[in-house]
Amino acid sequence: MAAGFKTVEPLEYYRRFLKENCRPDGRELGEFRTTTVNIGSISTADGSALVKLGNTTVICGVKAEFAAPPTDAPDKGYVVPNVDLPPLCSSRFRSGPPGEEAQVASQFIADVIENSQIIQKEDLCISPGKLAWVLYCDLICLDYDGNILDACTFALLAALKNVQLPEVTINGETALAEVNLKKKSYLNIRTHPVATSFAVFDDTLLIVDPTGEEEHLATGTLTIVMDEEGKLCCLHKPGGSGLTGAKLQDCMSRAVTRHKEVKKLMDEVIKSIKPK
Amino acid sequence: MEEERHTEAKIGAETGRGSSPRGPGCSLRHFACEQNLLSRPDGSASFLQGDTSVLAGVYGPAEVKVSKEIFNKATLEVILRPKIGLPGVAEKNRERLIRNTCEAVVLGTLHPRTSITVVLQVVSDAGSGAQLLACCLNAACMALVDAGVPMRALFCGVTCALDSDGTLVLDPTSKREKEARAVLTFALDNVERKLLMSSTKGLFSDAELQQCLAAAQAASQHVFRFYRESLQRRYSKS
Predict the structure, then answer these.
(1) ipTM, 2 decimals?
(2) Which of A76, A88, B76, B141 is deepest in the core (most CB within 10 A)?
(3) Can you supply one Gene Ontology CC term for this chain's record (chain A) (predicted)?
């Protein structure tokens, strides 16, 4: 009977739950789904991480390659993110060139990397003007159940923390690069940006970590990316219902607590990795 | 007699002059708007802000492809063409921001199973990303009004930049934007000045965000007054 009502009037069905300040999956309005993270699972990548936010699963693989630094910034390397939403993760995506959602997500991750200065691009330079590292970060969604931006940001952060770059020296005589695979060092991760997403319902209610169905019924979304000092790297609100300054304040405080939760989880995982 | 007046209004594209360059009262640069300059689209507008200029055309409500139709409301589409080169990922991102902003204000339920297309062409661009977004939003709003699409509110785009020492600059020039620590673009509606859309670049604190939002809300007053004046001038009998 409830299933029938849900199919015919999904919004009304949802409102009944919201009135009691809870959601169909039993969560409170400000509660996140169970977050699990697995680091270093892909052995062929220089760094990798798998993040699960409830059912939403995103895997990030980082590969490091050589490239010539850009002519207008000869002492900088590159970080190139790419978010892929394959037909595997949801029936709404078709195979072919990346759709709008994937492009928007890629642009979002690129903005987060740029704004938060998670890696100083100067650290990626090997020889100014001649050689630099380029980190290709590929994020692939394996299961789409809403809140893709939070999962991608977390996966990227975890994968970058896992990346180990070999030492590279330029041979003075031959001017060729010599890679020492035995000596590897971790990247210098300067900040830890954590994303918190909200969905707006009926122009008034804000719920945290929306699932796929909730995103579909919502009238607007908001994503806040915060680093550990409480500074915002990104306030991404792509249209949707209007929000007042006071509501934004509530979102900020929730984002701060979420940052603490994620940081604790990250530290636990990093500690548990056995050194190779 | 009535037809004559009607034709006159169509030919005489109105130009509205915005506020003067940076005075103590209003810190927005000179802006101008022209409506109804294209003959084929249902509505069109050209918005000039500082040294950024965008031309917008609106087609709608029109027929929609069966694959894209929504049974109870209109399907909104936004196409943004850059000044040079082919549209890329950045354009797709801006299209999504503008589309979602328009969807929040356009009364789509009055025209179910139709499509409303907003086409934006960047005419001149001083190399600034955030200024361009604000200009596109303003042009899109004016074009939607010109097309007669029913909306629940008007919206406007405002940009602010935060310097490294924390000074807030509204409507920054491209030079200031490049040197700024953070650049924030907001879209606000004119009924309650609520935040409809926000796109930010750089690092900033919570308090600075609230400060920028308040400044943007005050600046939006000027833009909305300008909208009102230019529309009044256009539809007045004189």
Answers:
(1) 0.85
(2) B141
(3) cytoplasmic exosome (RNase complex)
